[in-house]
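Take one record.
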Amino acid sequence: MERFQFLAGVIAAHHDHQIVGRTRLQKTVRLLQRLGAPLDYDYMLYFYGPYSEGLQAEIGILENLKLVEEQPIQKPGQPSYYILHALEPALKFAERAEIKEFQAQISIMNEADATILELAATYDAFKELGSDNDEAMRRLRQKKGAKCDDGRDGEAVRLFRELGLES
């Protein structure tokens, strides 16, 4: 399965065939890649955690291929965000075995709070860089500050484990 088809299939496999937010897409793809999905995006730690310029560029390609539509949303007094809709030609990719293999994890991430997903992906990035659990948590709290409050850091680790990423 081509990477473009896989990426379009991931978006189509979400509830209502859409992902709300570029950050959610970045973190979902990052974690799927870590779970063994056939993707090879390069990530760097950025403001909202792991970020791939290549992934963002490929959303533009998916739009040109008429597989995905990215819709900007701007509400008065709130930050803007994007909704990525899988278009009709992409829906068939969500039914392929390569996507179905990850459907449980896609559903878990789809239901997760966006901040918890962001924290889980960032925690994972620190783990991948060689930090043990305690060091990864310390670095997560240092980087994300108040986003970790009210037990959200613990929820992020639970999500990380629920996805099957804890060794």
Notes: The two ends are 28 Å apart (CA to CA).
